[in-house]
């Protein structure tokens, strides 16, 4: 994330696994994309941009689609890896209706990005800066985006009463090294009772202890145990990074949630986008300095820390 220029992948890399919902083999190929294209899912001759307006379901995973219907499910972990590792533009080609679940984390996609390599492009990196708080309550869940000059930060709290998961909290400042080390390996999780219900409804047919941390009432059922003591809340952070990648640009802001999930993440992002006074597009100045400075343009009125100035063009992301 230190680059002030946009980045993409140097080459294409394919990752193959099974779809968590179908249980059948699927592949995803991530590769280079032009400046200002963001993340675009493709399959055959159809493509869907990874933006909030493409979200058509958030029940068990984030599902993207268009007027033709659902296009790709379980988009969030590959998006988290791309955004988390500081990639701005990429094509994400799928050969089936979902991205492979792999081990339930973003680590296999981070490995793929490492194999592809990241290259800088000849355009300044653009961000969406949160200008005022937006808040959403959904049942017992609460989420908000607030202005935050230091980049992107997530503060999450989860509370699973009557479960060994219990209450966990995590605060995360996004940069590629921290994402790789502290977040990318955290796996999807669930409770045995919920998984059984999903199976009988025909969902999550590919879910297993190979790609999910599963708890019963008293303990974790995976023989290898947890990757982090607080792996569940870290996975929620991973999902936030992936779900908020649907802003279309990296965010400068603070995301807070309590008992959140895909539905809440999407609702908060949608609320932000709907209020044109709540955000603006800014672009990075070059070079990025060691210490954040306030940069100003003669006719601008930027007061953002971090070496950014207000974009000289109108916001074009919705
Ligand atoms: Zn997830």
Explained architecture:
Helix 1 packs across helix 2, helix 1 packs across helix 5 and helix 5 packs parallel to helix 6. Helix content is 20%, strand content 33%. The chain has one domain: lpxc deacetylase, domain 1. The chain is globular and about 55 Å long. The chain has 6 helices and 20 strands. The C terminus is likely disordered. The strands form 5 sheets. Strands 11, 12, 13, 14, 15, 18, 19 and 20 form an 8-stranded mixed sheet that branches. The protein is of the alpha+beta class. The structure holds zinc ion. The site of zinc ion (ZN) has 5 residues, from helix 1 and helix 5. It catalyses: a UDP-3-O-[(3R)-3-hydroxyacyl]-N-acetyl-alpha-D-glucosamine + H2O = a UDP-3-O-[(3R)-3-hydroxyacyl]-alpha-D-glucosamine + acetate. GO terms for molecular function: metal ion binding; UDP-3-O-acyl-N-acetylglucosamine deacetylase activity. Its EC number is 3.5.1.108.
Q: Return residue spans where pLDDT drops below 50 for at least 5 consecutive residues.
A: 288-318
| Fraction of helical residues | 10-25%
Query: Structural class, from helix and strand content?
Result: alpha+beta
Q: Mean pLDDT, as a whole number?
A: 88
For the termini, the CA-CA separation is: 23 Å
Supply Rg: 19 Å
| CATH topology tier name | lpxc deacetylase, domain 1
Largest sheet: 8 strands, mixed
Give the name of the CATH architecture: 2-Layer Sandwich
**CATH homologous superfamily placement:** lpxc deacetylase, domain 2
């Amino acid at each position: 994330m230190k680059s002030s220029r946009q980045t993409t992948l140097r080459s294409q890399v394919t990752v193959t696994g099974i779809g968590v919902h179908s249980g059948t083999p699927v592949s995803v190929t991530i590769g280079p994309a032009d400046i200002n294209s963001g993340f675009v899912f493709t399959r055959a001759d159809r493509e869907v941009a990874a933006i909030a307006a493409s979200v058509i379901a958030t029940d068990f995973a984030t599902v993207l689609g268009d007027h033709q219907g659902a296009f790709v499910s379980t988009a969030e972990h590959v998006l988290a890896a791309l955004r988390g590792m500081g990639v701005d533009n990429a094509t994400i080609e799928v050969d089936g209706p979902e991205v492979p679940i792999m081990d339930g984390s973003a680590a296999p996609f981070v490995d793929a990005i490492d194999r592809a390599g990241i290259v800088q492009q000849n355009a300044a990196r653009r961000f969406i800066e949160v200008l005022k708080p937006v808040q959403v309550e959904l049942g017992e869940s609460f989420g908000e985006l607030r202005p935050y000059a230091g980049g992107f930060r997530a503060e999450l709290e989860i509370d699973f009463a009557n479960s060994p998961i219990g209450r966990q909290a995590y605060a995360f400042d996004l940069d590629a090294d921290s994402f790789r080390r502290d977040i990318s390996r955290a796996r999807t999780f669930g409770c045995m009772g919920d998984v059984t219900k999903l199976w009988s409804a025909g969902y999550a047919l590919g879910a297993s202890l190979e790609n999910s941390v599963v708890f019963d009432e008293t303990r974790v059922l995976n023989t290898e145990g947890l990757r982090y003591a607080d792996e569940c809340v870290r996975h929620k952070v991973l999902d936030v990074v992936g779900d908020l990648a649907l802003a279309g640009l990296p965010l400068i802001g603070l995301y807070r949630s309590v008992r959140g999930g895909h539905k809440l993440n999407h609702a908060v992002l949608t609320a932000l986008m709907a209020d044109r006074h709540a955000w603006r597009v800014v672009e990075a100045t070059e070079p990025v300095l060691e210490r954040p400075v306030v940069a100003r343009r003669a006719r601008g009125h930027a007061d953002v820390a971090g070496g950014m100035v207000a974009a000289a063009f109108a916001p074009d992301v919705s």
